[in-house]
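Quick one: structure tokens for this chain, please?
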Amino acid sequence: MIDSHCHLADEKFRDDLEQVVARAKAAGLVGALVILEGGNAAEAEQAVEVERLWPEVRTAIGVHPHISHEYAADPERASAIVAAALDATPSARAVGEIGLDYHYDFSPRDVQQRVFRAQLRLARERRLPVVIHTREAEDDTLALIREEGSGEIRGVLHCFTGTPSLARAAVDLGFYVSLAGIVTFPKAGALRETAQLVPVERLLTETDSPYLAPVPHRGTRNEPALVAAVVASLAAARGMPAAELAARTTENYRALFAP
């Protein structure tokens, strides 16, 4: 199994990181994609320890839409900071997470868009996939990917909770769709139905830990080992063995991120 999106460099894992990694390996995970915030020195430092404990992990680096306002005066500076971090991180395989979030609007929407554009251009120039965060901003997210990607950018819509039309649009763009712990929630029947529409060769699984712990662990800190619950729920929804889905999503991860 693979956890294609986790935040192991988050401070919430600082005190027991070694045990968290050990549980992930014991659960059968062969790797994970760790998301790092561009310019965050504390996360960069902890990522070194993550790599020491788990050499198979790879990283993605980006400026999240929530903090885009920090680059309002110069959106290209976000791209420059991410580029420098990519150069300094041998395990880096993607730009992300990046995108748009109109639910919280922690940053002005026009600023989010400019910072997103700058990072999409960087990904295209570096020939790297992107890890996309989009919330209540689907139309603008897709439009910017089309405009700046020029058909050359691949990537994933992470922690997918969108509509069937968004899933189809992502697949048409050559993107993958990643499901997190939300797919295990009792009221997520519509999401499970949408997940059945995604071709199995475009599916990924993730935890987004330390957030969104799956059933039956809701309300606790999430961690990579719990991706097994996501795999089981998604496999049941698609009517296939969990081991087969785990193998397919692992293959998909390797195809996208070339770890």
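Residues 109-126 form the longest helix (18 residues).
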